[in-house]
Amino acid sequence: GDGCGHTLLTPHSGTLSSKNYPGTYPNHTACRWRLRAPAGTSLLLAFGDVDLEPSEHCARSSLLLADPQAGTSYGPYCRNAVPPAPLLVTNSSAMTILFNSTSHRSGRGLLLSYATSQHPAGVRRRCGQERALPPLPALCFSVYCPAGCKDIDGDIWGNPSQGYRDTSVLCKAAVHAGAIADELGGQVTLSREKGITLYESAFANGLHSKRGSLSEKRLIFHKAGGPRLPACPLLLPACSDVLEVASFNASSWWHEVDVLGRDRAWVAERAALGTAGHSWAAHPGSEAAWLELDLGTRRNVTGIITKGSSEQHDYYVTSYRVSSSRDGKNW
Question: Where does it live in the cell (predicted)?
Answer without folding.
Answer: Membrane
